[in-house]
Amino acid sequence: MGICCCCYRSSVPSTLLPVVLGRVRPGGIRRCAPGQTDSRHDMDGILLLLLPQLSPIHVIETGGRPAPADGRPARTGRRAAGPHRQTGRRPAPVPKAERGRGRLTSGAGRHDRAAARETIGYVTALIPRPRAEVAPGAVHVPGWLSTDEQAELAAAGRDWARPPAGMRATRLPSGGVMSVQTVCLGWHWIPYRYSRTADDGDGAPVKPFPGWLAELGRRAVADAYGDPGAAGAYRPDVALVNFYDEKARMGMHADREERSLAPVVSLSLGAACIFRFGNTQSRNRPWTDVELASGDLFVFGGPSRLAYHGVPRIIQGTGVPGIGLPSGRLNITLRESGLE
Ligand SMILES: O=C(O)CCC(=O)C(=O)O
């Protein structure tokens, strides 16, 4: 059954799973199904098949297209809302104080609808989620952690969150406060530097980076790149442990405070999110939106190590029972600081 996107948004019961069948020819016009509305709608979008929902949908979206070679502006979808607008048409000037992972965002709902219009790929409960190289050196491995490993990491996360040098919402130089709460291991991250003490908190020494977490990081790099040799040299010594409630998000930023260009290993627990993986030039398009679910691994290194990335939203209702994380999302990124 094909219906237009705007009718879909207002009429689909949450128990139905949308499966993308294909793109509708640009500019194509379709009438809505009888009884929904008598207006006509621009169908330059996607065709959806509705199935009973079996398990969370997994969507890979590609946002925007690179600008044509003749210098014309890139064609983009509907503009995103809010100060975080990223159309690729007009790079928004960003005050220096708001650059980096702490940039505040808003308007994700409307933005996500715009992103959905640009969905070109799909994987659903009916089709296994494959591993994917999202960009050169940026690899997504779905379901990498077992349920037991997720539960162990969630329990460790709870311990790490406790004071001293516990979890806090980071205050930005601009005065804003991040919606994500973070605790650090090995080195304490403060916008935009590392310290051995929680200088923006209680001043206590940062918690140590455990050896077993470094081992997990090496295994992650080996599995993501299929190269045990390269992984043997990986010596992560800093972790940022981020907690997202259902409203939290993280703006587009590049991880530049490390002196080492070794890969970043990202582990996801709990609620799924949309993880936006961009390019190394700017926080604007082109980017790829990937759904990161509980247990997923994402590694970015090599040519993608300094790519902009962010989390425009947590997907509500995707929490996972049995790992000790009743709500929200926990993300653990491992990095090599290159610091002494
Ligand atoms: O939560 C995530 O998946 C990304 C976290 C991140 O980008 C960061 O900690 O710098």
Task: Write a structural description.
- With 340 residues, this protein is an alpha+beta fold.
- 15% of the residues lie in helices and 29% in strands.
- The strands form five sheets. An eight-stranded antiparallel sheet has the order 6-7-17-14-19-12-9-8, covered by helices on one side. Strands 5-16-15-18-13 form a five-stranded antiparallel sheet, covered by helices on one side. Strands 1-4 form a two-stranded antiparallel sheet.
- Strand 8 and strand 9 form a beta hairpin.
- The longest helix is centred in the middle third of the chain and has 15 residues.
- The radius of gyration is 20 Å and the shape is globular.
- The protein binds 2-oxoglutaric acid.
- The site of 2-oxoglutaric acid has 12 residues, from strand 12, strand 18 and strand 19.
Structural features:
340 residues; alpha+beta; Jelly Rolls; 8-stranded antiparallel β-sheet; 5-stranded antiparallel β-sheet; binds 2-oxoglutaric acid
